[in-house]
Amino acid sequence: MKTLSFAGLIKRLICSPRLRAMVPPPTRPSAATAPAGTEPDPARARLLRAGLRLFAHQGFAATTTRELAQVAGVNVAAISYYFGDKAGLYRAVFFEPLGEIADNIAHFAAFGLSLEDALRAYYAGFLEPLQQGEDGQLCVKLRMREMVEPTGLWVQEVHEGIRPMHDAMVGVLCRHLGLTAPDDDLHRLVVCLSALGVHLHLGRDVTDAVAPQLHAAPDAVERWGDCLLRQGLAMIDHEQRRRAAAGGTP
């Protein structure tokens, strides 16, 4: 049996018929269906939405400015006016919909929070794409595509977003576990904690196949949040007891 590389697995996921069925191909939106209240300028908002759909489905290189303008219902010159060029639009599409990671860090890394409150705020960032519905799925798909068709933005997000978030959670756990400095086991714990949230998105196709009701319930996001919190606290508690049994040594 042939073993897929990670890149091969991601490529299979973004090209799978089931995932395509989950997120329909882009169509030209009418004024009635254009997202409201997300951007002060409707034309810019339509370009962002068109870019998200086209880039997620086709990738950066295969998407033309003419397609973007047609789907958004604007003149091609609007891309230059609002974003400078296609690369500028791609950057905005990649980073803007999910907000600033720094804001999420400020919520969960604040001093004075209990461990439970800190972890709940930490997982709130992972749950945000679920609350955005189709757009959230497209944001995840865009990142998966960026991994196998890199433009440099994924590397930037890792260094400027994901790594600071990791380091902030390491700091939170150092405080709550009474550690003066992190060790490798603590870094492993944070990777495992984040994996719970990441798998909600990378494993969405599988979850919908084996237990579709988990995402269909009206309170699905709230239930996922409670589940992540319980499992995360259990992992931290186990690590704390392991360290205590070892006399505080890694």
UniProtKB/TrEMBL annotation:
Residues 41-101 form the HTH tetR-type domain. Residues 29-38 have a biased composition (Low complexity). InterPro entries: DNA-bd_HTH_TetR-type_CS, Homeodomain-like_sf, HTH-type_TetR-like_transc_reg, HTH_TetR, Tet_transcr_reg_TetR-rel_C_sf, Tscrpt_reg_YbiH_C. Keywords: DNA-binding, Repressor, Transcription, Transcription regulation. It holds the Pfam family CecR_C. Residues 21-41 are annotated as: Disordered. One of its GO terms (molecular function) is transcription cis-regulatory region binding. Residues 64-83 bind DNA. This is HTH tetR-type domain-containing protein. It comes from Pseudaquabacterium pictum.
